[in-house]
Amino acid sequence: MNSTRAQTNPESSALPTPQTQRAVAAALVAWKDAPGALLPILHALQDAIGHIPPDALPLIAHGLNLSRAEVHGVVSFYHYFRTRPAGKHIVYLCRAEACQSMGARALEAHAKRSLGVDFHETSADGAVTLEPVYCLGNCACAPSLLVDGQLHGRVDAAAFDALIQTLGVHA
Amino acid sequence: MSTDVYVSRDASALAVGAEATARAIATEAENRGIDMRIIRNGSRGMFWLEPLVEIVAPAGRIAYGPVRASDVPGLFDAGFVDGNAHALRLGAIEQNAFFSKQERLTFARVGVTDPLSTQDYEAHGGLRGMRRALGMGSADIVREVTESGLRGRGGAAFPAGIKWQTVQDTKSTQKYIVCNADEGDSGTFSDRMLMEGDPFVLIEGMTIAALAVGADRGYIYLRCEYPHAHAALKQAIASAYAAGWLGADVHGSGKRFDLEVRLGAGAYICGEETSLLESLEGRRGQIRFKPPLPAIKGLFGQPTVVNNVITFASVPIVLDKGAAFYRDFGLGRSRGTLPLQLAGNLKYCGLVEKAFGLTLRELLYDYGGGSATGRPIRAVQVGGPLGAYLPESQFDTPIDYEAFAAIGAMLGHGGIVAFDDSVDMAEQARFAMEFCAVESCGKCTPCRIGSTRGVEVIDRIIADKSRAGIDRGKNLALLSDLCDTLRHGSLCALGGLAPDPVRSAVQYFPEDFAPRTIA
C-alpha cells in the first residue's frame, strides 16, 4: 500500500502501541509460514489482547504480504472478531431456534434490560459485554449462555442474575 | 481395589453442573478413604439425566442421575459405590428405553469410553476399520464406502463414495482432506458430542479417507463456539501423533498424514463447503461458484474431500464391518444410521442414533416424551434454521432424505427442534429472514438484500394484524415473490433455503399471520 496515502488516513497516523506490536509479532512468528495463516493470526491476536485493534491491520498486512483492505475485509466479515475492547466478561447469549423454544426471547429481553445494554454493548460498569450467538450446540439444555469459555444451560432470568452477580464479584 | 466412576466431560453435561459433581465425588471419596478413579467420558446423550454418574459396581455399570453436587454425600451414604438403591439410581443405561432401542454404530463408544485414551479406543473396537483399510488397495476402500450407501451427513446427503472417487481420479501431487466441523444449525450437537466424546474415530475416518484418495494433509475446520471440542481435538491429535496414528508413517504404512484443527470465527455460512475453504485459505467466507467442484479444485486449488464430522466418523465402522453391514440399516436411498438430535421444547432431549425409517412422531413422543412444558407440540423445525416448520399433520413423515424432500422439508444434519403452542409462527418466520440477513456472505443480492426486505415485509404483516389486516394479501404476495427470488437467485443453500421456514410458517400456520379477531 502507498505509504504517503496511508499516512493521510487518521486511523493509521498513530503508531501501533507496543502491546499491539508485540502481539502481532508473536502471532506472525507462530503462523506466518502456515498456509491460510490469516484467521489463526487474528485468533492469536484476539486471544492475546482481547480484540483486533485497527493499528494492528497494517502490521498484519505487511507480515502476510496482503493489502490492508484484505485484512480489514476478513476482520469485518467474521462476527467473532471485535475491533474494540470488550468488558471484563463477554456473555454470549444464544438466539437460535432451540433456545427460543425454551424461552430465549424472554431471556434476551431480560439480559438487555438488566444490563442496560443492547447486543454488542458493554454495561456501564465495564463488567459485561453482551453478544448474540447463533447456537452453542447446547440445544438439549436450552436456553444457553457461554461466559468466559464456560457453557451454561437451562438459563432462566433468575439463573442469569445469579451468574451476573458472580461475574460482578470477580470483575 | 479402586472403583471406576464415569462423569461426563461433554459440554452440555458441564453446562448443567458435571464439573461440580465430579469434584464433589472426588472430595467425598477422599474424605471417606475410598479409592476411586474418576473417568471423564463423553455423554450418553440423555441430557435430562446429566450430570449422569455411572459407577462400575460388582453388578456392572450402574447409572445415577441427574446428580447434583449436593446429592453426592447422600449417594455415598446409600452405598452407590456398590451400586445400591437410591432415588437417583437408574440401573444400567443399556437397559433404559431411550437407549436400548437405538442402533449406535457411529456413536458406539461415545459416553462409554475415556475419549482421550488411545488404549480405551482400541479396547472398544477402535482402529479395526483402519487395519482392514491398510490391507486394501485405495480403490477398494473407495468402493467399500460407495457400496455402503453412506451419504454426507452434514445435510446435503451427497454420496460420500462418489466424492472420494472424484478426488481419487483427479491427478495431483497435493490433495487434502477437510472435515467440516462448523456445526452451526440450531438443534444440532451430534458433531460436538462426537468430537468431545470419541475424537479418535474422526481422526481414524479422516486418515482412511487420506489413504483412499492419496492425500497427505488434513484440516478440521471447527467453529469457535465449541471451545470444549477444540480442547478435546487438540489433545486427541497430539496423542494420535505420539501413537504413530498421524504423521510421517501412519500405522507403519509408510504414508504421511498430517492433521490440524483450524478455528472458524462465528460465521454460519462457513458451514457451506466452498465458504469453508475460502475461510481456511484465510479469506472472507464468501461462497464460490460451482463448478469447479471442491473434489477437483478445492483447498488451495487442489483436489479436496470435504465431509462432515459424522460422515468421516461413520467410515471406520463401514470398513470394519463391511459395506453390506452398514447398508442393511435404513430404507430406500437412505442407508445406515443417522444420529438424530432431539432439542428445544422436549421432555427428553438428546441423541438418538437409529436406522433411517422411524417417524418424526416416534422421535417426538416415544423418545422425546412430548414437550418439556407439558403443552401440545405445535411446530417442529427439522434440519436447522433453513428447515421447514412442520405441523402435527406431517409428524408421520419417515426419517428419510427423499421423504422429507417430498414434503418440502429437509432432514439436513438431523436436528429436531420442537415448539409448544405458545410459539408465534410469524415471529419465527421473521427470525428466519433476520438470521439470513445476519449470516449472508453478501455474494448474492437476493440473499444479502432480500433477507432484510423480508424482515421488513414480515414486520408489516405483524403490524397489520392489529389493524384489521387490510394490506395482508398484498404483503403476503410480496413475501411469496421475495421468497421465489431468494430461492432462485442465490448460489448456495443459505439464500436458497431461507424461504423454507418462512413459507412453511405461512402455509401451515396462516392464523399467526391473520388479523387478530376482536372478542
Describe the fold and architecture.
The complex is a heterodimer of chains A (171) and B (519). Chain A is α+β, with helices and mostly antiparallel strands and 171 residues long. Chain A is built from 9 helices and 5 strands. Chain A has helices at 3-8, 10-13, 18-31, 38-49, 57-64, 68-77, 97-100, 104-115, 157-170; strands at 89-94, 121-122, 128-133, 145-147, 150-152. The longest helix of chain A is centred in the N-terminal third of the chain and has 14 residues, at 18-31. Chain B is an alpha/beta fold. The longest helix of chain B is centred in the C-terminal third of the chain and has 18 residues, at 472-489. Chain B starts with a strand and ends in an 11-residue tail after the last helix. Chains A and B meet through helix 4, helix 6, helix 7 and strand 5 of A and helix 1, strand 12, strand 16 and helix 17 of B.
